[in-house]
Amino acid sequence: MQLDEFFVTGEPLIYAGMVSIVLVSAAILFILTYFKKWGWLWREWLTTVDHKKIGIMYILSALAMLFRGGADALMMRTQLAFPNMNFLNAQHYDEIFTTHGTVMIIFMAMPFLIGLMNVVVPLQIGARDVAFPYLNALSFWSFLFGAMLFNISFVIGGSPDAGWTSYTPLAGAAMSPGPGQNFYLMGLQLSGIGTLASGINFMVTILKMRAPGMKMFQMPIFTWSTLITSFIIVFAFPILTVALALMTLDRIFGAQFFTLTGEGMPMMWANLFWMWGHPEVYIVILPAFGIFSEVISTFARKQLFGYKAMVWAIILIAGLSFLVWVHHFFTMGAGAFVNSVFSISTMLIAVPTGVKIFNWLGTLYKSRINNTVAMMWSLAFIPSFVIGGVTGVMLGMASADYQFHNSYFLVAHFHYVLIAGTVFACFAGLVFWYPKMFGHKLNERLGRWSFWFFVIGFHVCFFPQYFAGLDGMPRRVFTIIPEWMPLNIISTVGAFGMGVGFAIFCYTIVYSYRYSERETSGDSWDDGRTLEWATPTPIPFYNFATVPHVDSQDAYVKLKEEGKTTFEEDELEPIHMPSNTGQPIIFMAFLAIASFGLVFEWMWMAIAGLLAGIVMMVIRSFDYDEGYHVEVDEIKRTERSARGL
Amino acid sequence: MTDHNKRIPTQHVVGFVLSIALTLLATWAALGSNLSTMWIISGIMILAVIQAGIQLFMFMHVVEFESKNGHVPWNMMFHGAVLAAIVVAGSLFTMSFGFTHDHDEEEHQYEQQENDDQEQQDEGEHEGH
After folding, report:
1. Which structural domain, as residue segments, surrounds residue B2?
2. What is d(CA A352, CA A289) in angstroms, rounded to the nearest whole number?
3. Looking at the complex, does the CB of residue A335 fall below 8 Å from at least one CB of chain B?
4. Which sequence ranges are marked TM in the entry (chain A) (predicted)?
């Protein structure tokens, strides 16, 4: 292979990308070396198994991916507002909408939520870490290497260009030769290992490691939504794993599962993809519902209205999520009976979701609302998500879907649910739990600016797209007809508004790091209801000096009433903690090398990487590190300084 | 079930080696052997059942006693079976209705006829409206 085949050539934007990658990497290397931070980086972050630090790394990576996906989005919007400027050609546009979708779902939404789960869930249930800390680190590194592998595709080898759904036969070897689609397959496969492991990890953590006395129906609602999400992950992700593996066999080893020739069934890919893909939608929305519930009940200063109905609604949504996948391809022509069945199951999902909307409204009803930035994101979510949900029911009607399918109406719908649901929740959750992670709040004034820019920009961007869709504008086109121009220009203005909102948000982080008041109490918002607020800030690495006995919902509310803390000096005992380890990052680096080899079909590299991975598994099998104990004296010292005693 | 004091988990190692051996055997049967298709398919099915047995008994704690949270492994297996049923039955349901994927001439004609019937029915419905 020649070098000019290895690197993507001929595109000025991509040359700029290459230059910026080299410059940023050089700058990072220089800063780390100049300030002698390599040891610190390795000891404190790269080898950590602490769920809080892993969560923070997830969130930082997700923010970087949000920037990348957002940049893709702005490029697409620029192209559609000025279609005659030849800003992007058809091929480049195809690559960008493909990476935009994949990055946003797989490498932004999920890691952001998993990051928040990592930080918050063990604290909410009174645990000192997740059930399998080593596996947790492994999950993170598998996600990060998967994301990096996918992201380098635009400078090395060429990006995938068959849409984030990667439908065959277009995505097959015959019609998409070269490494592009392989990047999609291997990037998702590698990060999928981590997602599946996270699902198992949180399932066990929540089922087995709750504070003494805490019953299932006393768990905070975010923990509930994480548990249900974990179940969906464990059941849905194997389907994606198998589908990706089958397509890998097709593309790299000449099998015929999804090909047009050799009795392959191209539509089987769509079928398997959405069998995973629909539950995936709920993987990214259920934790969001959990976050909104926590934020709303905290700032409405009330117990969540209809807690049990909320839990059962989540469980019902999770169950139904496995029975609706065909609504993504009604137009495949599976026949009226099949479509009717899935049309009805789709509409059924609106029922438990509607129940949840009323739960939130019921919580807000007659409450004294503390209008913080986190609360504003949650309040903006409710009406915006309802618009997305109602248009979802419209799409769910199979016969009407023949009109809406693959039009901008669909694009507007899923952005309304994914942004107003998941992205608003990520912002709300990050702002809400930020003081627990970093010891200071985000500046509220700047937060409001970023909120208004983002939310108004969001509606200006996506509301017109419903009408562009009704006017017949199909998705995934790089040029448009004059009738669609006004709507598209409005939409582009809105998209840049969202970009400004995100930029202000990033500036808020820097500003708050420098100027925000440091937290002195653990209960940052004064109205904390769940156990994470019972810990001091900064949270000691062992979380709880003494784990409280829980016998009610909103455990911290009761703790405050009884005047108890998580530091009862006479009950202290040595705490057993897991040791840091460099194995997960090394292991996943080897698998990343193997995946890179498979992308370019360099078998020697793939085999070497896999063998090294197996060696790492053997090393792990004979690893008898049992962790260490934190002595009572050290706990006393840490707690006293953290609590200012 | 697992004894944490034991240095080498014999049962797991045996299970691991057996499952790899069975996989290799199935691969050989499909790619390398001269058996007839019928024998290959039934052979692979039998190997799959043995494989599932190995997984259940050697890794998945199927013989474990009930704990205070109910019989967790059995619950998980039940959910797994439901999911498998959804994947298999669901795929057959969506992928086979109104499609022909059989290149066998006779059946093709039969399916064709069925489709024609369907179309006539559809037309009837259109007239009805």
Report:
1. 1-63
2. 12
3. yes
4. 12-35, 56-76, 96-121, 133-156, 183-209, 221-247, 281-299, 311-330, 336-361, 373-394, 414-434, 446-467, 487-510, 586-619
Inter-chain touch A268–B91, beta carbons under 8 Å: yes
Q: Do B97 and A235 touch (CB under 8 A)?
A: no
Range of the domain at A499: 288-523
Within a domain: B22: yes
pLDDT recorded at residue B97: 64
- A338 to B69: CB separation less than 8 angstroms, yes or no: no
pLDDT at position A484 is 94
B63-82 pLDDT, tens per residue? 777 777 677 778 888 888 89
Rounded to a whole number of angstroms, the distance from the CA of B90 to the nearest CA of chain A is 9
Residue among A253, A105, A274 at smallest CA distance from A192? A105
**Residue from the list B83, B90, B91 with its beta carbon closest to the beta carbon of A235:** B83
CATH of the domain at A460: 1.20.210.10
Nearest by CB to residue A334, choosing from B87, B94, B101, is B94
Q: What is the mean pLDDT of residues A555-574?
A: 89
Total domain count, chain A:
1
Rounded to an integer, what distance in angstroms lies between the CA atom of residue A147 and that of residue A36? Answer: 27
Nearest CA in chain B to A242: B87
The angle subtended at Cα A233 by Cα A229 and Cα A239, nearest 5°, is 150
Number of separate domains in chain B = 1
Position A242 pLDDT exceeds 70: yes
Q: Is A322 on the interface with B (CB under 8 A)?
A: yes
Residue B26, in any domain of the structure: yes
Give the global pTM.
0.92
Taking the Cβ of residue A232 and every Cβ of chain B, the question of whether any pair is shorter than 8 Å is answered with no
Q: CA-CA distance, A18 to A7, in Å (whole number)? A: 10
Asked which of A195-199, A534-538, B114-118 is least confident by mean pLDDT, the reply is: B114-118
Q: Are A226 and A635 in contact (CB under 8 A)?
A: no
Whether B51 maps to a domain, the answer reads: yes
ipTM over the 0.85 cut-off: no
Residues of B in contact with A265 (CB under 8 A): 95, 101
Torsion-angle region of A371 (φ positive above 0: left; ψ -120 to 50: alpha; else: beta): beta
DSSP B70: B
* A235 inside 8 A of chain B by CB: yes
Q: Is A239 on the interface with B (CB under 8 A)?
A: yes
